[in-house]
Each structure stands twice: as structure tokens, then as C-alpha cells.
Amino acid sequence: MNIQKVAVIGGGTAGWLAANHLGKALLSKNVSITLIESPDIPTIGVGEGTVPTIRKTLHSFGISETEFIKRCDVTFKQSIKFQNWLDKRLHGPTNFYHHLFDPPSPMGDDLSALWLQTPMQEYSKLVSSQHAVCEANLAPKLITTPEYQAIQGYAYHLNAAKFALLLADNAQQKFGVTHIKANVVDTKLHLDGSIDALILDTCGEQKFDFYIDCSGFESILLAKALKVPFVDKSQQLFVNKAVVVQVPTESDAIIPPYTKATAHQAGWIWDIALSSRRGVGLVYSNAHLEDEQAQQKLNRYLQGRLDQYSYRTIPMNVGYRKQFWAKNCVALGLAQGFLEPIEATSIMLTDFAAGYLANRFPTSTAQMAALSERFNQTMTYAWERVVEFAKMHYCLSDRTDSDFWIENRDPQTIPEGLQNKLALWNEYVPMSEDLFSKFEVFNVENYLYVLYGMKYATKTPQIGELSLIEAKKHADRIQQRANLLCQQLPSHRDLLQKIHQFGFQKV
User: Which side of the chain, N or C, has fewer Cβ within a 10 Å radius?
Assistant: First the structure.
């Protein structure tokens, strides 16, 4: 049977990203796409950080970067600044490192070996000019830089609710996606277990050939209707709750061009600055911190002002579905699963999975068995790599001030794949060949920034005299470029104001 009618269940970022990816890919193939969104269920709306790959996605959808920035309260994100992730007694009370978006050592050979000779300075400062740009709160580009192009690598911070609305408009106007506001009250299955139809509260039974479950944590199709089990990762990633709040800011306040991630006794705090407010969330393990203690910690972080704002506590079920594609249904976004937001992986995994599905979308039911097997293998691999990368932030910490940090270093809680990588990188500086799949979520530069930001003790490699001279020249060139960029680039807020006034050049 040919697949001609597709339903996306759920709106928000996940649903509308899926609708755009599929709408673009299937526009010329006589396939209709209908997004069914509940009018009664608000989106989670806390996923406000992205990674650089989102720029390529938005450009491919035909969305103007200027319009996106204006409509979605967008600010630029060039890094995640990890504060207080190491022992204060050993590394100082203001210890931090940057996980930058520009690759390290851009003007010659890798400088990691040079850093290991003298690891007192910040790794990111040695290997990238972007460290200085971030610390000076500067923008990653000029107003004359064309849309989606960059002087320094960047992603975005954004208002998630407004982002979903922009994606919704784009999908309907450019790709002909139909939008229905209704609640799914029941699901009918075929004898073979696949989904036959949805029962909607406003328009009764609706039949489709293929279903995309973007219904969030509820996962009303994949989990509830098709009974796909959940793979629990709470024994490796302990963080399972968040207290979230939005804090208004002054119109002239400095806007950091990075996400702040500040560690605490049993987790960490994200702090994302938009142009007129900050999105702040304290994530924690409820096995190590009571809810009331978490609120008290967030109140201290906000200098005693928490009660001035509306805040809420969100439980997080940490893990993913054993299958992401079952029968004629694929789950995306939170319906696939959730891992803590330490590296803004939720939107990233949704974008990756939706794009992958769109490029390998079945034209008939006969193709689904082979395609679903490949999709499930790929996405399982991706989710496991995210588990490893997130865990690395915790198990490398030398903090001893709570059981949370001590237990995170217990080998029983560290995935075997990560243990093998760390054992290798104890002897050798990481290189791209250590990551052997094209479906790696994080590249070697991501590992380098976190490993050496957290002072990982790789065995110091021997460097020949000539190589050492060249490495120091390379480091000097990076510092010279950093000085030049700090003179040329505008402040973050200044660029945003100019974008709202004039807009970028079109590509």
C-alpha cells in the first residue's frame, strides 16, 4: 500500500520541526501532512538552547534568519560556560571552562599536546580565539555578515513557544501542512498491531497511513497504543527533576553569548539570556536533594528573588524508548525519550531524527520493515552516545562535597563505551579516528573541550623541538586573532539591536 496520508501528533518544537522536514521532503510526492495539536496541553517550553546544526536546518526550510531572530527573541550562543564543575579547593571558587562552538586549533596542528605540557591556563583560551570573544560578551558576526554565515561558530538561544509558532507558519505556508486543533481520545489498531485510525474529540475517526508521535512525555501512540517499553538510564544519569523560572532583565543588561551551566551540590543550574529575560532552571537528583532544598538553592542563585516570579518543578523520566519506529509509527522529541539538558541535546536529537526520517521516508508499507530497522539502530546509537557524553561531565569532576559527585565516579554507573574511551584517552590525545561512526552526535572537538576543560590527565606526549616551536607559533596566531576579533566584533546586544533595526544581508 502506498503511503499518502501522514499525521503528526503534537505541536511544539518537535511536531513543527517534523512537519517542516517532512513537508519539504514530500512536497512533490503527493503526500499530505496533517499536524494534530491539542488545544488543552501546553508545550513544556524550557528547551531554549540549540546547537550549530540548527542553522543549516532553518536555512533549508527557507526561514529568514532576520525574521527568526526578530520573532523568537533570539540571542546568539557560542559556547556553554561550565562553572564550578571542579573542586573549589583545588581549582579555585570561580573555576570554569568553555565548550566552544568553533573547532580548536584552527590554524595548524592540534594544540592539545602543547596544553598538556603546561595545563595551568584554560584549554579553550589556548586553542581558540572564541574564548576571548565569549568572555568579552561579543557577537559571533557583524551586521554585514550574510544570514546564517559566521565569523565565529554559533547557535541560538530562543523563546521555545515563539519558535514553534514560527515553524508552524512556515510549514503551513511553504509546505502545505494542514493544522487541526483536537485531542486524541482513542487509537484504533489493525490486526497486525499497526495504527489504523485516531479518534479525535472534535472530528471523530481520522485514518492515516503513517503516524509521527510528537506528543511529549505522554507518548500517546508509541508508548500507550503500541506498548513500546522504556529504557531507563537513571542509574547512569542521576538528574531527574528541574525547577524552572523566567526572570525579566533590564533593557541594557549585558547578554552573555553563551549558556551558563553552574554546578551545585546535586546537579547544576542553566542560565540562558534572551534580550528581555533569562530562562533559569535548577536540575537535580531527587535521590540527593529534596525538592524544598532545590528551591532554596535556586532562590540563593537568584539572590533571594525566586518568590517574585512564577516557577514550577518538572519531573524528568531519564531514558528512551526501546524502539523509535514501531509498525507505522515513529516517535520524535520527548516521545522518543529524554536525557538531561546538559548539552542542549533535545532539540538536536529531534532535528537529526526528523531530518533522517524525511530523507528515508517510505513510499509504501513494503519498505517499512527494512527502514525501521535501520532507523532504530541509528537512533539507539545516537542516544547511547548522548548518554556517554552527558555522563562524562559528571564522572570527570573531582568534587567531593556530596554523595552525588562521588557516586557519579562509581565505575558501575559509567557506560562501558565511555570507560573504554577514557582509558584510551588516558594514554593518547583524542583524535577523530577514535569515533568511528558517521552517526556520532558529538565530534572529537566536543570531547576535547570537555576533557581538557575538566583537566583530564592524559599522559603528556613527547613533542620534538621543531614541533614545539611550530605549536607555540600557532598558539600566538590564535591569540593575535583573538585580540583582533575583540576589536572588530560588536557587543552581543549591539548586534541584536541592529538586526531588529536593519536586518542581515540575504544569502
Answer: N
Catalytic residue from among 24, 77, 125, 233:
77
C-alpha distances out from residue 382 to 224, 376, 389, 430, Å: 24, 10, 11, 19
334 is in an annotated binding site: yes
Q: Is 297 annotated as a binding residue?
A: no
Annotated domain spans of the chain: 5-73+156-234+318-383
Cell of 256: 552573555
Q: First-to-last CA distance in the chain? A: 41
* DSSP, residue by residue, 320-341: EES-SEETTEEE-GGGTEE--S
Residue given cell 576571548 in the structure block? 132
| 459 part of the active site | no
pLDDT at 478: 97
Distance of alpha carbon 387 from alpha carbon 434, whole angstroms: 17
Q: How far apart are CA 477 and CA 105, in angstroms?
A: 10
Whether 155 has a binding-site annotation, put simply, is no
Q: Has 151 been labeled as part of a binding site?
A: no
Classified as helix, coil or strand, 360 is coil
Which one, of 160, 198, 221, lies nearest residue 13 by Cα? Answer: 160
Compute how many other C-beta atoms are within 10 angstroms of the C-beta atom of residue 156. Answer: 24
What gap in Å lies between CA 264 and CA 405, rounded to an integer? 10
d(CA 296, CA 300) in angstroms, rounded, equals 6
12 is in an annotated binding site: yes
pLDDT at 89 over 90: yes
Residue with cell 505556508: 173
467 within 8 A of 115, measured Cβ to Cβ? no
7 assigned binding-site residue: no
pLDDT in tens, 343-366: 888 899 999 999 999 999 999 999
Has residue 462 got a pLDDT over 80? Answer: yes
What integer is the mean pLDDT of 459-469?
93
Q: What is the pLDDT of residues 14-53, one digit of tens each?
A: 999 999 999 999 998 989 999 999 998 766 555 589 999 9
Question: In angstroms, rounded to a whole number, what is the distance separating the alpha carbons of residues 104 and 124?
Answer: 7
- For the domain spanning 5-73+156-234+318-383, the CATH number is 3.50.50.60
Least confident segment among 40-54, 72-86, 153-167: 40-54
Q: Is the pTM value of this prediction over 0.85?
A: yes
- Going by the DSSP 8-state scheme, the letter that residue 218 receives in this structure is G
